[in-house]
Amino acid sequence: MSRPGDPVGLGALDRDGELGESLAGLSRGGFIAAAVAGVGGLGAALAAAAPAAAATDDDIAVLRFLLRLKQMQAVFYTQAERLGAIAGRDLEAARVIGAAERASAQGLARRLRQSASSAPTFDFQGATEDRERFLRTAVALEDLGTAAIQGAVAELQAPLLVVAVAKLHPPEARHAGWMRAVAGVNPAPRALDAPQTRLAVERVVVSTGFVADDPTTETRGRPSFTG
Amino acid sequence: MTQPSRPGDPLAASAGGDAPARRDRGELLVKAAVAGGALAGGAAALVLLPRLAGSAPSPEGDVRGLNLLLEIEELQVAFYEHVLATGAATGGLLEFVRTAAGQDAKHVATLREILGGDARPAPRFDFGQVGEPGWRVAARIEDLAIAAHAAQMPGLSHDALIQTLGMVSVDARHASWVRAVGGVRAPRAGASEGAMDDRELREAITALGVSVGSGG
């Protein structure tokens, strides 16, 4: 039922360098120091990271990547809930998982000081309007999220960020298992889940066409801070 | 302790090439495993070590942490083998148990391969006091495995953490799967995962009615 090529990637979401602009006022060290107790698992996890642990430019890029993924998942479930094409157990799954994704996205956006106006827009091309397509896409998004977080842990460098993001992995995998069960497919197709790199995830995202505008990754400007 | 190679792993190059610090920790991991040998054995099957939250990762810490995870995965395998032996599971639960048993056995094999000579002998588990070994107990045991992994994350080296994420991910899938089999209506809420140290785990396992004896 799920198609490996369905899930979405994140690099295409930074249209017009908005992410670069939103990070312009954020020093590398200030990223962690600015953390406050926030909503959602990721926000709380980042808030728990010691202020002394500075994030590298690469770390911030990874977190931006995860933010985009969480935003995409959050919007997907929110739309599905509102459009009324799903009901019963499907709807309950969308509500619970959607709430978790929204919380994570909000927490991460707050830590990255990204305003709501700079969030990307998505067109799921009917995937939120049809039960079968919803389930197929949800399975793909959660599998992708699981692999993306696993890959992000490998890419991150600041030790406390590594742990903070790693702790997001099991809940994401729970979501993946749950949506697969709801969709009637094997919740655990492999004995060991594998990570995906940012590049691989981004390629998948582009292939879906879910991003409302054309990707302009080449316009993503270097943050004005240098750290 | 050795780390299994992963041919074709897309992260194999990126994880090491640009991060000398991580590679040094990985090298220490291997060297300690070669020189240090197995930790002193103990009568208790569960590793009763003080919680090392906030401690910097170290090769010794990896050995302790990975051995704890090994024992929890062995608990899972033993439980599922117990369920199969009772013949009580049918339908969706049986399908789950068969799959989970095999996958958790893979986790055990992987951890033993990583630990090499530092791997502790498998404990002996007695499920006689567990009562009905149904989906609720299975879900609880999977939750305990996830909590164990979460507790060890801060203390594991980056390399060891990367190695274990693929296992806890599947344990989490199992936790959702067996709840779905049990007819739970909605997935477990929350965007973060609780952690349990070794003492808390031992208490939780005892509360399930599981007796743990030394192996080897």
Summary keywords:
heterodimer; A: 227 residues; mainly alpha; 0% strand; B: 216 residues; two-stranded antiparallel ribbon; globular
Brief summary of the model shown:
By secondary structure, chain A is mainly alpha-helical. Chain A has nine helices and no strands.
What integer value in Å does the Rg of chain B equal? 17 Å
Number of strands of chain A: 0
Helix content of chain B: 55-70%
Oligomer: heterodimer
Please name the two chains that share the biggest interface, counting residues whose Cβ lies under 8 Å from a Cβ on the partner chain: A-B, 55 and 50 residues
The helix tally of chain B amounts to 7
Distance between the termini of chain B: 19 Å
Can you count the beta strands of chain B?
2
Helix content percent band of chain A: 55-70%
Strand content of chain A: under 5%
Question: What structural category arises from helix and sheet content of chain A?
Answer: mainly alpha
Number of helices of chain A: 9
- Spell out the helices and strands of chain B N to C: HHHHEHHHE
